Amino acid sequence: AEEFVSVPLKFFPIGPGHYPCKILLISSYDVRVYCVEGVVNEDQPEAALTFETPAFEPLIQNIPLHNETKKEWKCQVKIEAKWFYGPAILHIRPGETVQYPLTFKPISECEIMGKLTVKNEVDSMEHIINIKGIGKKPLAFGTITVDCKVGDVASKTIIVPNYSMTILTFKVSSDLPIVSGDPHITVDPDSSVSYVINVCPLKRGILKDEDLKNLRVWYHLEIHASAGPPLNITEVKCMALETSCIEIPISNPKEETLHIDVILTSPALSGLQQLKLSPLESVSYIVWYSPATIGYKEERYGVSVALYSILLLIF
């Protein structure tokens, strides 16, 4: 039977790295040489990287890895952090420096801690880097522009994505009360669906929503509302350089106070720029018309509750 003898060895490395050595065994009948190499890895991470980017916006950091040896390296890369991505295998030729692309792409506001481990299969050396990812408030997915007329309903279709691996149900909201649609929308993992928003403006002009916080997916919404057909046509005859008074009946059918902004499109027209109507109140709005020349003109006035009229002026 073969017999074996254990040879005790003590290894006291002074730091990380490679420690190659040879052990020579000599007897009267045999000479043996054993090649032994000690590999010592860092007990602390070699570096720390911090990534900060809005949700859904990828941020890539290239990490240089240099091979100073005469052998080609094959490195295994292990990422232990959520929303971080990169190649699992990396080949580095002798004397070559390769940039490892580490990507951080969060899908929500978050703060992630983890580490990146690069292990060389040739010499078993490991390089460890601490990584930290901060996901900020996401940017808008785009700007939705809706062109419509006052009092008409306009529809717009948008695409809502789900980048996660779980089914998500979104609660839909807007800070513009004239925007409506389904209050909830469900999206399957790693897919997208169409969502229809409806817009019914109560006044003309350009309306914009404000930034909404704590949302996973959001859009800028800009509504271009043009004037609808007039509710009433009033014909007025007036002498040039004289002033005529026009009374326009306005009522508030609601059970709440109504604030009205008045728009006068001609310098020949004058009147209050704002009105306040109590619940169920009716008043006569006074418009003063002072033409400077003779002729036939069509003037307009409007209020912010989607009412405007055409004045046919003959003088």
UniProtKB/TrEMBL annotation:
It comes from the Eukaryota. One of its GO terms (biological process) is sperm axoneme assembly. GO terms for cellular component: cilium. This is Uncharacterized protein.
